[in-house]
Amino acid sequence: MREKKIKINKLDYINPEEVLIRFQDKRNLIFLDSANKTISENNRYSYIAFDPIYTIKFNASKNYLNSKKFARINKLISSFKSKKIKSLPKFQCGLAGYVSYEAGLAKEKIESANPLEKILPNLFFGLFDIVIAFDNKLKRAYLFSINLDKEFFIRTTATMYFFASIPLYSSMVYHGLGNYYDLTISLILVIPAIVGQFFGSKVRKKMSNEIFQKLVLIILIIIGFTLLIKNLISLILE
């Protein structure tokens, strides 16, 4: 079977817990993280994923687990092969979930006395084609995707930039780099920004994901070169 290509978008690093709060209402949300605050190779990565394209759920109160049901999971894994990038966080889209203690009881056909069993399934796995990964050691964040929808990319990137701007502008105000004039100008510029978003959404709907991603890449390259040239000119003039 042909391996699926993982698409990677770099994001500004933000504390994973803050990003989790933003997506807390998403369907089948998962958060893979460590409670250990000391960063090591075993716990340096955190992951957020939601809205899986396929799910498998079993509950012992309705049916018992058997080899056929586990075969469905194996079939799902084999149908979603992708080439991983070794230097990046390990979970780059794929299957994630859990097998509860009650699942073992269900396999042995033993009734469970756990009252939460009717609320949570004994076994849950989701096939996630979009994953936000955090490298907590190098302070980097990535958006892994397979056939990423451009609208989701815009929303996720905008959310990450919004949270990243809070400490930045707070620091500027604290150090006296911002004033009421700057705030007034920023508020006025919100109007053309909203108008631009409106027309931008109209244009995006007529583009394919591939063309949109290439266009975003070109714009980012142009912005990068512009900043580089601007800084070089400033150094020369000094």
Quick tags:
2 domains; 18% strand; five-stranded antiparallel β-sheet; three-stranded antiparallel β-sheet; alpha+beta; 238 residues
Architecture overview:
By secondary structure, this protein is an alpha+beta fold. The chain has 2 domains: 7-145, no CATH class; 150-237, no CATH class. Helix content is 45%, strand content 18%. It is built from 6 helices and 8 strands, in the order βαβββαβαβββααα. It has helices at 16-22, 67-78, 101-107, 150-174, 180-205, 209-237; strands at 7-11, 30-32, 45-49, 54-58, 94-99, 123-128, 130-135, 140-145. The chain has a 5-stranded antiparallel β-sheet, covered by helices on one side. A hairpin with a 4-residue loop joins β7 and β8 (140-145). The N and C termini lie far apart (59 Å). The mean pLDDT is 76.
Major sheet: order of its strands?
1-8-7-3-2
Number of helices: 6
Number of folding domains?
A: 2
Distance from first to last alpha carbon: 59 Å
Can you tell me the residue ranges where pLDDT is under 50 for at least 5 consecutive residues? none
- What is the tally of beta strands? 8
